[in-house]
Amino acid sequence: MHALIQTLLIGIVVGALYGVVALGFGLIVGVMKFVNIAHGSFIIIGGYVAFWLFTLLDIDPYLSIPLVMCAMFVLGLLLYQLVLSPLLKYPRAEMRLDKSLLVTFGVTWILDNAVTLLWTPDTRSIVTSYSGSTLDFFGAKLGVTGLAGLILAVLVALVMHLLLTRTYFGKHVRAATEDAGAAALSGVNVQRTYLVSCGIAAAMAGVAGVVIVSSYSIAPSGGLNWLLTAMVVMVLAGEGNVTYILPAGLILGIVQSISTLFVSSSYQQPIALIIFILVLMFRPNGLFARVGR
Amino acid sequence: MLEISNLDVYYGDLQALWGISLSVEDGSVVTLVGSNGAGKSTLMQAIAGLLTPKAGSITFDGLRLDRLPAHRIVKSGVCMVPEGRRLFPRMTILENLEVGASTARKARQETLGWVYEVFPILEARSRQQAGTLSGGEQQMLAIGRALMSRPKLLLVDEMSLGLSPLATQSIAQVIKGLNESRRLTILLVEQDVQLALSLANKGYVIENGRIVGQGDAKDLLCSEEIKEAYLGMGKAG
Question: What's the predicted TM-score (pTM) here?
Answer without folding.
Answer: 0.90
